[in-house]
Amino acid sequence: MMNIVFTQVLIILMANISWSIQFKTVLKIMLVFFHVALFLSLIVHFKTGGTLSFGNHTMTGRLGGLFFFAVTAVLAGFASLISFYLVLINRRVIYIISLALCIAYLIYTDSRSVLLGVIVGCFIQYFFNLKIQKKKTTKTIVFFIVFYVLYRIYSAYNLGGANVEDDLEFRTKIWSTALLGIYQEPYLGYGDSLYFLTNMNYALKDFYEQLNDPHSSYLALILQSGLIAFFMLFYFLYRILKGMVLKPNIYNLFVISLFGFWLISGSTGGAFFNLNYSLLSVLFNFTLIALAFHPSLWPTNSIRIKEVGLSSEKHENEGNFKSINIL
Asked: What does UniProt give as GO cellular component (predicted)?
C-alpha cells in the first residue's frame, strides 16, 4: 500500500514541475535522460559479459545493462517515440540520429512486443499529423505496411530468448496460472501479495524462479487490484483518449501514440499498469498524469480558465467601482 501511495505522490510532484515547463522541453529532457540510461546500460552490458549477437538471443545476448532487458526495451521504445515526434515536427539531423540510435538499442533488446508498440505509436503520430495538416491520411497505410514488413523480417530472423521462453506452451502455463488466481479473487485481487511468484514455482519450477509477473501487464493489474480497478483504469484511459482523438493537435498526438505504445507493449510483458513503485510503473503513470494533462494539450480549457479569471476580475472591479460611488 505504501508503495502505491509513494508512487502517486512522486508522480504528482513530477507533474507539477512538468506543467510549468513547455511540453516539447519536457520531452527533450526525458530524451536526454533515456539516452544517458541506454548508453550506460550498453557499457554495463559488455562489462558484465554481455555479447553483441543477433538471431536466437540468449539472456546474455539481450541488452539489459542497468536494468532487466524488458525494462531497457521500454526505455528505448519510449525514446524512439519521442525522437520520431521531434523529427515529425522539426526535422533536425540530431533527432534523426537520436531515432536511429534508439531503434538500434530496441532491436538489441530483442523485445518484439515493444517494437510492435513503437511501430503502432509511429503510425498514430503520422496519421494524426497528416489529419491536423488536412492532408490525405491514406499515406499512413503505406507507412504502416512498410514498417510491418520490416517487423516481420525482424521477427523471422530474431526468435528471441531461450528456446523455452519462445515456446507457446511456456506462455500458456504462465497465463493459465494467472487466470486461475484471477478466478479465485476476481474483484479486489491480492494486493501486494506474492501470489504469482509463489504459484509459478510449482507451475514452472525448472525455469525462471525469479519470475514474479504473468508476462502481461493486463493480467498483472487484475491479479494485484482486481477487475473493478482494471475497468476503472481503462474507462479513465478511454475518456482521456476520446477527448484527444476528437480534437487532435500537434501536442496530444504524441500522447495518443504513447497510449498505443503502452497498450501493445503491455500485452506480453511487465506490470506497467500496476501502481507499485517501479521504473516502468512510474513512467506509465507519468504518461497518464503529467503528460496527458499538460496544459499544452488542452488549449480550450486554458482559454476557458483565463476567461473565467478575467470575468471574475471584471466583476470584482465593477463591485469596487460601485462601492466607491456609494461612498
From this structure: membrane
